Amino acid sequence: MIESARQSVATGKLAGVHVLVVEDEYFIAEELRLLLARQGAEVLGPVSDRAQASAILVGTVVDCAVLDIDLNGRAVFPLIEELKLRNVPWLYASGYSADLVPDSLRGRAHIEKPIVPDALVAAVLDITRLRAK
To answer: Which residue range forms the structural domain that includes residue 23?
Structure first.
């Protein structure tokens, strides 16, 4: 039973993809972590603020980031500049509308909460495929 669960994760749609999750709401962060891990992703975090996310970016392979727009009352946008410098694609998983995001900081996808698991997995696949090209 345990071996089949490991095998399932190793062959999931996101197998081998390193995803940084930045979300300040514990239960949502845990939901994202579990959802991505069940699809085989290597989940980095989740973390709840920019400093923690920045620490992970140093010396760690990150294929993409899944970010909430608002982290404890602060916009995640300063972190986007760091992701851009490191050529890490991102998407937003947020209750806030994409209209609130400045054009220069728009992610490759914007998933509104509540998260639809298939939509999130598809978005992560899309942005990591685009990065590989």
So the answer is: 2-132
Return the CATH number at 37.
3.40.50.2300
Residue with tokens 């940084």: 20
Report d(CA 66, CA 86) in Å as an integer. Answer: 15
DSSP element (H, E) containing 68: none
Q: At 111, list the tokens.
A: 């998933």
Which residues, in sequence order, are bridge partners of residue 67? 22, 92
The total number of structural domains in the chain stands at 1
Both tokens of 33, joined, read 């972590």
Report the DSSP beta bridge partners of residue 47.
Answer: 22
Whether the Cβ atoms of residue 55 and residue 8 lie closer than 8 Å to each other = no
Tens of pLDDT, residues 39-97: 999 999 999 999 999 999 998 999 999 999 999 999 999 999 999 999 999 999 999 88
DSSP letter for each residue of 88-101 = --EEEEESS-GGGS
> What is the identity of the amino acid at 65?
A
